[in-house]
Design goal:
The complex is a heterodimer of chains A (401) and B (331). Chain A has 2 domains: 197 residues, Response regulator (Rossmann fold, 3-Layer(aba) Sandwich), CATH 3.40.50; 156 residues, Response regulator (Rossmann fold, 3-Layer(aba) Sandwich). Helix content of chain A is 44%, strand content 20%. Chain A contains 16 helices and 16 strands. Chain A is globular. The longest helix of chain B has 27 residues. Chain B is globular. Chain B has 331 residues and is an all-alpha fold. The chains are: A alpha/beta (401), B mainly alpha (331).
Chain lengths: 401, 331
Amino acid sequence: MLNRRDLLKLSSVAASSLLLPAGLRPAFAAGEDITIGAPLPMSGPFAANGKFGSMGTAMIVEEVGKVLDRKLGYLEIDTEGKPATAVRKVQEAMERGVTLFAGGILSSEALAMGKEVAKGKGVFITTAGADEITGSECNKGTFRWSVPTFGAIEQTVRPLIEQLPNAKRWYTITPQYVFGDGLLNAAKAIFKEKGIEHVGNSYHSLTEKEFSGYLTNAMAAKPDALLILNFGSQSSDTLRQAVSFGMKKRMTILLAWASGLEQFETLGPDLMEGVYFGAQYWHGIDSPFNRELVAKVQAKHKMNPNYAFASAYLTTKILIDAAAKAGSTEGSAVIQAMEGMKYTGLTGDEEIRAADHQVIKNYYLLKGKAKSAMKDKDDYADIISFGKSFQSPEQAQCKMA
Amino acid sequence: MNRASLHFLLAALVAIALPLFMRSGTLASEVLIFAMAAAACNLLLGYTGLLSFGQGIFFGLGSYAAGLTLLHTSLPLGVALVLAAIAGAVVATGVGWLSIRRQGVYFVMLTLAFSQFFYFLAYTFKDITGGDNGLLNIPRPAIGPFSLGDSWAYYAFVAMLFLIVFAALQRVASSTFGCTLLAVRDNEERARAIGFPVRNFKITAFAISGAVTGLAGALHALLIGVAPLSNIEYHMSESILIMTIIGGSGNLFASVLGAGFYVIVSDLLSSIWPRWLLLLGGLLIVVALFMQKGLWGLIERLVVALPMGRRSAIKSPIESPIQPESEGRGI
């Protein structure tokens, strides 16, 4: 008698091309031995980031080719930028034996996916921003490459205060949720320590598109510096409107959490000139591994790697190297190999802290250039300073289970 | 076999066929969960003529209610699901009570406003809901000796609830209450003049719809282990409405078709083209212009076109409210 499993196998022959979960088809059609899952927002509002992330993953997988004598492949998983979809598709991938995942650009989807992957004894490395990923919600299966909010503020606000000793009055614009509050609290701590007057803060929602009201309040407070703490299109809109209000001429503007090249291309040099930006990655970083990556991407894609591309390339490489070191793709072995791993990364020497799975890496303060000073079409900014600042795992409230 | 039995049989066939033709228990579960939500939406849209953008509220509340119950109490799964349904029903009663004071576009605007209101409540009270990060770590406890950890085991549980809910909704739709809803939809003034308490009927329809949608939201949270903020967003209401409209608001099984089509086709299209939502938008335009009875209407036409079908043409007991002005009152 035919049982359900047999029926499933028979029916799948006929139906697999149509009903196999969409994002899973390429990898299984190719029949690779080791598959890295790449859950990225390929559609929806963050599709542009997903596209470059996928290119980065594809490049390193193609470059390495084989690991542990097995062919390497990757599985593009379209999260649609929705946590529910992301978790569902990751569950489906895990049911098919994928244990290693690199991706997750949005905090909400990364947090949810990390939990799911950890539950399935897999490994997930992400570049998402929420502090909880390696903080209060840290778990054995989740690693994070990007610097949390504390380090982003330490490496942007602090050096800028030192560079601009006369900027004594600061105004902040903050998205009202956990990420925004993380940035704001870190900034307030520095203001207090340095005797800076925090002349005001405007909270806005995550769906806000119009910032003129907040900017009017900021101008009325007559600050010396405006600290923009939102990100993505919201930070671009805030900056555009601030520049159109003439605020760039009246005060210093710092956008603490910029996306880098992909965002700068939409802003353009006229808006960016003289504005300071915080960034996780910039293609102009002077490190051996980054120079190598930039040359490879220029040769292959005739472009400079942006943050989404470079971070996906590196995080996937970390997983592959860890699997090679562990001699296995089994989650627990790869986790053990990753904990405490030191390697030459895009930002120089990088290390994965074992206690909370946070990668210890540099964060950068950039300054927008004038169009006339740009050496090539992507030379939007100069690196002003960089460094590593991290809370201890205890301060970050990570209690690894 | 009467029409209700036929539709129940078709729903049961869908529940049985999904594991045979799909390789993902998670996706199959999602189809049935949204089928429940779409059928509940249909009770308002198809049977009562109320185009509600508030379905996402009940879905999200169901997710949060079940998640909070399982995270902070030791109550069993069944109780968490019942609480989610109650939360959906109670809030739907409130939303319905206020919204039905206005008709047509003002009713739609009110449900939209409530949708935004509850979204921002969930967003603001992040200590309870997890805010933008969502409510994480929602467990999926076993039911007695039966573990629901495996995706197909969970599917079996969802399928069982789906069939119970579908049968219950059919019972409601075919009862005197359901027939009265149709009368209210077709001519509210006349129904009132005959002596029906129209307002109470509409509120009751809202409460039933809210309870079922809340239950669907709870099952969704258990499926993915998280209650994301997107579950209570306006877009969730929009998605549930689209499923209902694509399926056709003529009967409850049409909503199952709509949900299945939407969930599976979205999953397929998203890998083919990042701008797949454009295709979905195009499909909605086609449905609105040429297929006002949705997929079910298309099946009806095909059946009628067959030689056998001409002799026993299926005729829906109710007409879709999405039709030319002269044929119905609409919203």
